[in-house]
């Protein structure tokens, strides 16, 4: 997401964290409804697909930090996050392919 031109000075880190928690809660509620209606095998694949999206979100945010951030430690953690989530995402994608999702 391109943040150029956005005045982020008025949005606190707490505000960003709360927005993230609110979005996560909404995702969890949608996922819960779909998962409750799913059979066990479908539940597994649905879970994996939701986790793929979760890991992709972490990758996207970390890539944005690498592009726009300035702190060396934050960039190191962002790269570590990209590496770990890329691996986890690939494992989940293989699981989905194997289980016909």
Q: For the report, how would you describe the main beta sheet?
A: none
The proportion of strand residues reads: under 5%
DSSP strand tally: 0
Q: Separation of termini? A: 28 Å
SSE order, one letter for each helix or strand: HHH
Large-scale geometry: flat
Please tell me how large the radius of gyration is.
16 Å
Helix content: over 70%
User: Whole-number average pLDDT?
Assistant: 82
In DSSP terms, counting alpha (H) and pi (I) runs of 4 or more, how many helices? 3
> Which regions contain 5 or more consecutive residues with pLDDT less than 50?
6-11
Instruction: Report the structural category.
Output: mainly alpha
Word description of this protein:
It holds the Pfam family DUF305. This is DUF305 domain-containing protein. InterPro entries: DUF305_CopM-like, Ferritin-like. This protein is mostly helical and 101 residues long. It has a domain of 60 residues. 80% of the residues lie in helices and 0% in strands. It has three helices and no strands. It is flat and about 45 Å long.
């Amino acid at each position: 997401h391109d943040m150029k031109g956005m005045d982020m000075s008025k949005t606190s880190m707490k505000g960003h964290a709360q927005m993230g928690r609110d979005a996560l809660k909404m995702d969890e509620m949608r996922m819960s409804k779909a998962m409750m209606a799913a059979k066990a095998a479908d539940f597994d694949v649905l879970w994996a697909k939701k986790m793929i999206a979760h890991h992709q979100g972490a990758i996207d945010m970390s890539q944005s930090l690498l592009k726009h951030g300035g702190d060396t430690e934050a960039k190191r953690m962002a790269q570590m996050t990209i590496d770990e989530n890329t691996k986890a995402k690939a494992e989940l994608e293989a699981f989905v392919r194997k289980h016909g999702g």
